[in-house]
Amino acid sequence: MDGYLIDTDICIYYLKGKLGIKDKIKEVGVNNCYISEITIAELTYGAYKSKDFARHILEVKKLEVLFEIIPIYGSFDKYAEERVRLQTAGILIPDFDLLIGTTAVTNNLTMVTNNEKHLSRISNIVIENWTKKAFNEHIK
Question: In this structure, what is the dihedral angle of CA atoms 69, 74, 77, 79, given to the nearest 10 degrees?
Answer without folding.
Answer: 0
